[in-house]
Amino acid sequence: MKCPYCSTPETKVIDSRLNQTADMTRRRRECSECGGRFTTYERIEEFMPNVIKKDGRREPFQREKIVAGLQKACQKRPITGSQIEAAVTEIEKKIQSYGLKEIPANSIGGMLMAALHKMDKVAYVRFASVYREFRDVEEFVADLNQIAPQTPEEAKPRDNLAFPFLNEAES
Fold it and tell me: How far is the C-alpha of 36 from the C-alpha of 56, rounded, in Å?
């Protein structure tokens, strides 16, 4: 490993640790020439297929794009960064398990929508509104109706402590 301070190719490892999920190694290194210390992170390079875009272009799979899309959909929602990372890791593992060299972008989008549907309905709707490119309001409403409560009983507010007058109105 080349020293970032003096570019000497000789460095030694002082300390190595695995992260919590044991998929990345953190190494603390020291330069034998200048004595500078720095940290490196090692991750196993996993084969990811190319993504076939809607217009037929092919591009390498980019985890960062998926994380960014989920973060944007989950803005101001009670979703943690670790939940997003866990969802992306699960999707990556699923994609790798297929063993394909190429995967359509809409397959990845479907996996993302399924993950968001489990995590947060509002984030799901945000993502779907951009991803599905609805042509009109009716298409959007039809999609919303699929995730909305199906019976009037499910739609009733229950033990509404923030707005007790809503519970009184039902009586």
Answer: 48
Is 170 part of any domain? Answer: no
Q: Please, what is the average pLDDT of the chain?
A: 83
pLDDT digits (tens, 9 = 90+) for 55-109: 999 999 999 999 999 999 999 999 999 999 999 999 999 999 888 999 999 899 9
Q: What local confidence, expressed as pLDDT, does residue 20 receive?
A: 80
Q: Which two tokens stand for residue 132?
A: 């599905």
Number of domains in the chain: 2
Distance CA 107, CA 52 (A): 10
Neighbour tally for 84: CB within 10 Å: 22
| Distance of alpha carbon 9 from alpha carbon 64, whole angstroms | 30
Same domain, 98 and 20: no
Q: In which domain, by residue range, is 17 found?
A: 11-43
Indicate if 38 and 93 belong to the same structural domain.
Answer: no
